[in-house]
């Protein structure tokens, strides 16, 4: 079936900056994440400060042709005007007509449709999509342009960089010329994955900002682990907003506004906002989960628990076993049991005076390497970023470095202990 027609682009369609404003000029964005940025997670993230969310990447062909897949991935409440906006729906595709067919199903339930040009996994290589389209600019142009011309909502794109900044710029220009209204730039090449992940390069995003038309809307992606990374990234890149995946998954409060920014509340109180206790965070997630319809949210919940509870599960292996036993059909009562178990443990932990005294955030005074990343020691019963070990080493120093060099003196008060230091790029997992 041919659904594309080469008519002029509807004049009512929002373009770049107007689309951005229409979505509320978002600053803090939840990234598209397969099996992880589903409705319940988006609702939780919005409660905790996210301004805009992306759906997981959907396979255009399956979405267009398999009703069961579509129903599983995009339920009645997905994209709901009151519960799930603003929302960008992301697809991977390598056939323009199929992409358009898929996108037509969601155009009335989202603010824009995004094309995934960043996935570096082998499955994307086999299927020829994501970052493996980087070699076929003609096809990329067609994929974007067909949506630009035929869809009622704008099209956007999420890209990885090339090694050369000049080539990345040419690439970005081509994508914009095809009709993309917003560009998300992940500052890693497609080779940077697994053990080669490394730090995202914010300077290349700055280069695009400085060399594309000034009105281009750019979202910067990569390296957000702590709340202060948001402003550092915006400053370093000049982007309109930041997008987070791993940082958001391990601590969905990453985007919360610290109380001390706008009130006289002392900074040490921010510990509960920025690194919430896991019992409190889990209860909040459970409350969202139980009220969220759709298979996708329930299926994703086990992985979410593993990520949120990561530091805790290494110590409380009985809870780990309970999470591991969850499966796709687990009833909501099983999640309730785990939530209650974690609540009980954290409650008991904090009855102990020693633990209450340790319930602070300590941060290193010194950058851990040339990137300037600073590690913070956060009690294991609180949400925190994850530093992935690479070749057996904890990336960017980790705990070892904190112990060696830079403990804050015992007599420092809690406010000082939480004081935010200026850091350069934090480690990205
Ligand atoms: C669990 C997971 C699933 C992801 N799925 C997608 C996806 O569906 N589409 C996409 O464009 N990127 C996907 N990514 C990549 C992220 O959107 C993001 O570009 C990358 O993780 C870098 O951002 P970060 O440093 O904040 O993690 C995924 C990442 C993770 C961790």
Spatial arrangement of strands, main beta sheet: 1-2-3-4-5-6-7-8
How many angstroms separate the termini?
43 Å
CATH C-level class of the largest domain is Alpha Beta
Rg over alpha carbons = 22 Å
Portion of residues in beta strands equals: 5-15%
Number of alpha- plus pi-helical segments: 20
CATH topology of the largest domain: TIM Barrel
Assign the CATH superfamily of the largest domain. Answer: Aldolase class I
Structural domain count: 3
Query: Which stretches of 5+ consecutive residues score pLDDT under 50?
Result: 395-429
The CATH architecture of the largest domain would be Alpha-Beta Barrel
Given the C-alpha coordinates, what overall shape results?
globular
Calculate the mean pLDDT score and round it.
87
Helix content bin: 40-55%
Biggest sheet, in brief? Answer: 8 strands, parallel, barrel
Bound molecules: flavin mononucleotide
Q: How many extended strands?
A: 12
Category by helix and strand content = alpha/beta
Explain this structure:
The protein is α/β, with parallel strands linked by helices and 429 residues long. The protein has three domains: 16-256, Aldolase class I (TIM Barrel, Alpha-Beta Barrel); 278-351; 361-418, no CATH class. Helices cover 41% and strands 12% of the residues. It has helices at 16-22, 39-47, 60-65, 67-73, 96-104, 122-127, 137-150, 165-178, 202-211, 228-237, 246-250, 271-274, 278-290, 295-308, 310-313, 317-324, 332-349, 353-357, 399-405, 414-418, and strands at 28-30, 52-59, 87-92, 112-117, 155-160, 182-186, 217-221, 241-244, 362-363, 376-377, 389-390, 393-394. The strands form three sheets. It has an eight-stranded parallel β-barrel, surrounded by seven helices. A two-stranded antiparallel sheet has the order 9-10. A two-stranded antiparallel ribbon has the order 11-12. Helix 10 (228-237) links the parallel strand 7 (217-221) and strand 8 (241-244). Helix 2 (39-47) crosses helix 13 (278-290). The longest helix has 18 residues, at 332-349. It is globular, with a radius of gyration of 22 Å. Mean pLDDT is 87; it is low at 395-429. It binds flavin mononucleotide (FMN). Flavin mononucleotide binds next to strand 2 and helix 11. Residues 31-34, 36, 56-57, 90, 116, 118-119, 158, 186, 200, 221-224, 244-247, 428 line the site of flavin mononucleotide.
């Amino acid at each position: 079936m041919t659904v594309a027609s080469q008519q002029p682009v509807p004049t009512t369609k929002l373009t770049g900056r107007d689309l951005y404003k229409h979505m509320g000029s978002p600053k803090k964005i939840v990234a598209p994440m397969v099996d992880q940025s589903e409705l319940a997670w988006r609702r939780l993230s919005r409660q905790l400060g996210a301004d805009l969310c992306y759906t997981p990447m959907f396979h255009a062909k399956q979405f267009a042709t398999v009703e069961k897949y579509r129903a599983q991935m995009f339920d009645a409440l997905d994209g709901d005007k009151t519960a799930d906006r603003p929302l960008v729906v992301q697809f991977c595709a390598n056939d323009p007509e199929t992409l358009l067919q898929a996108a037509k199903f969601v155009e009335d339930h989202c603010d824009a449709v995004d094309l995934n040009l960043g996935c570096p996994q082998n499955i994307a290589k086999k299927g020829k999509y994501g970052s493996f389209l980087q070699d076929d600019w003609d096809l990329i142009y067609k994929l974007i342009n067909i949506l630009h011309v035929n869809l009622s909502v704008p099209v956007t794109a999420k890209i990885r960089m090339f090694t050369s900044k000049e080539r990345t710029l040419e690439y970005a220009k081509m994508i914009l010329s095809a009709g993309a209204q917003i560009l998300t730039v992940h500052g890693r090449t497609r080779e940077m994955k697994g053990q080669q992940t490394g730090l995202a390069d914010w300077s290349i995003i700055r280069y695009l900002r400085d060399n594309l038309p000034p009105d281009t809307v750019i979202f910067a992606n990569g390296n957000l682990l702590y709340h202060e990374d948001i402003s550092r990234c915006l400053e370093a890149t000049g982007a309109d907003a930041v997008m987070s995946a791993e940082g958001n998954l391990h601590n969905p409060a990453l985007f919360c506004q610290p109380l001390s920014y706008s009130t006289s509340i002392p900074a040490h109180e921010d510990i509960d906002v920025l690194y919430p206790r896991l019992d409190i965070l889990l209860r909040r997630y459970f409350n969202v989960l139980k009220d969220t319809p759709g298979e996708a949210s329930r299926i994703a919940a086990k992985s979410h628990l593993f990520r949120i509870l990561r530091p805790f599960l290494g110590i409380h292996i009985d809870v780990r076993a309970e999470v591991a036993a969850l499966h796709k059909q687990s009833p909501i009562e099983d999640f309730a049991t785990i939530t209650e178990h974690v609540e009980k443990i954290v409650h008991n932990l904090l009855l102990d005076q020693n633990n209450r005294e340790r319930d602070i955030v300590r941060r290193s005074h010194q950058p851990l390497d040339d990137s300037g990343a600073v590690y913070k020691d956060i009690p294991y019963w609180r949400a925190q970023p994850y530093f992935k070990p690479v070749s057996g080493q904890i990336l960017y120093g980790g705990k070892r470095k904190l112990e060696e060099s830079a403990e804050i003196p015992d007599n420092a008060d809690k406010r000082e202990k939480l004081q935010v230091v200026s850091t350069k790029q934090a480690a990205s997992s």
